[in-house]
Design goal:
This protein has seven helices and seven strands; from the N terminus they run βαααββααβαβαββ. It is 40% helix and 19% strand. It starts with a strand and ends in a 22-residue tail after the last strand. The chain has helices spanning 9-20, 28-32, 39-57, 82-96, 101-112, 137-149, 163-171, and strands at residues 2-3, 58-62, 68-74, 121-128, 156-160, 174-180, 187-192. By secondary structure, the chain is α+β, with helices and mostly antiparallel strands. It has one domain: Gcn5-related N-acetyltransferase (GNAT) (Aminopeptidase, 3-Layer(aba) Sandwich).
Length: 214
């Protein structure tokens, strides 16, 4: 696992765009990035925004073969700053468009009510290059990142509209605690639960997939 640097931005953005631009099913990205002649450009701006946010407030991780990435943020570091303001304005004007801001705010409101008021760790997005789909590349990266954070005192919380991602997160111990459907498609909320006797040993990732019903 590699901790990405600013010089890796084009690589990370490229991985994210390659993975998400072709997807046509309803999801959080397609909710705000329109299908028009500027879609590819808008996708690059959105993924660049997420990279900048992760670098400013958390971490960006790459797999050892640099074919997969995972971006996460720490809630207590996502505070107001000039960089944050300029980045958000750039996304609104050049990326999603002013007319889409309402959808972004609605999604944010729905998601945010599932997050605690205190500090937490939020893996925002992960992806793998198309040629490495079906390999262990993405799963290995997620395992390494979660292993690094499973003994911390902060909850790890994820939201995703991808059932494939849900199954992968569950494989490493995250559990569904809510499903939001107000946007017309399900957004799964998952968290990594800590064991009460953590001090007795390291927590091992679960190996069996299982889905909790809400």
């Amino acid at each position: 696992m590699i901790e990405a640097q600013q010089k890796d931005k084009s690589l990370v953005v490229g991985i994210l765009v390659e993975a998400f631009e072709p997807i046509k099913e309803e999801n959080s990205i397609n909710l705000i990035v329109r299908y028009d002649e500027k879609r590819l450009k808008r996708m690059h701006i959105l993924m660049g925004f997420l990279f900048d946010k992760a670098m400013r407030t958390g971490k960006v991780y790459l797999s050892d073969n640099r074919a997969s990435c995972l971006l996460l943020t720490y809630a207590d570091k996502d505070k107001f700053s000039i960089k944050k303001l300029l980045s958000t304005l750039n996304l609104a004007i050049r990326g999603i468009g002013i007319t889409q801001v309402r959808k972004v705010l609605k999604r944010q409101q729905i998601i945010q009510r599932n997050y605690p008021k205190g500090n937490y760790i939020r893996p925002m997005i992960f992806a793998v290059k198309n040629e490495f789909k079906g390999t262990v590349t993405a799963a290995k990266l997620i395992m390494q990142v979660f292993k690094r954070h499973m003994d911390n005192e902060l909850p790890v919380i994820v939201d995703t509209a991808s059932e494939e991602h849900v199954q992968l997160y569950q494989k490493f111990g995250l559990k569904i605690f809510n499903v939001e459907k107000e946007l017309g498609f399900p957004i799964y909320m998952l968290r990594m639960n800590r064991l009460p006797d953590m001090e007795k040993g390291r927590r091992k990732p679960k190996t069996k997939l299982h889905e909790q019903r809400i």
